[in-house]
C-alpha cells in the first residue's frame, strides 16, 4: 500500500514519525472546527429559547456599548437586551 504524506488518518503508518509541537486533539481542520462550534452554539441558544439578531452600528456606538457593558460587568449582548427591554416597556 502506498503511503501519502498528506494522509494523516492512518496512524500506524506514521507511528515512528516524530512531529514537533503539541499533538492534535481534534482531527478536523480549524476552519471546520469553528463551523461545528458555531452550529453547536446556535443549537444551544435555540434550546434556551433565544433568537439571533444581527445589525451594524458605528464604531463609536460599538465602543460606547462595550465600555458601558464593561463598567456594569456584563456582556454587551446582555446590555443591549436590557436597553431594548427598557425601551419597549416605556412605549407600551
Automatic annotation (TrEMBL):
Occurrences of domain Ribbon-helix-helix protein CopG (ranges): 51-89
InterPro entries listed in its UniProt record: CopG
Region described as Disordered: 1-30
Coiled coil: none
Segments of skewed composition (Basic and acidic residues): 1-20
Protein name in the entry: LexA regulated protein
Amino acid at each position: 500500500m502506498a503511503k501519502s504524506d498528506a494522509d494523516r488518518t492512518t496512524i500506524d503508518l506514521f507511528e515512528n514519525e516524530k512531529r514537533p509541537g503539541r499533538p492534535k486533539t481534534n482531527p478536523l481542520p480549524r476552519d471546520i472546527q469553528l463551523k461545528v462550534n458555531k452550529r453547536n452554539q446556535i443549537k444551544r441558544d435555540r434550546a434556551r429559547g433565544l433568537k439571533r439578531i444581527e445589525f451594524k452600528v458605528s464604531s463609536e456606538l460599538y465602543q460606547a456599548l462595550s465600555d458601558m457593558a464593561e463598567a456594569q460587568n456584563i456582556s454587551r449582548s446582555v446590555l443591549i437586551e436590557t436597553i431594548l427591554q427598557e425601551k419597549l416597556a416605556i412605549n407600551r
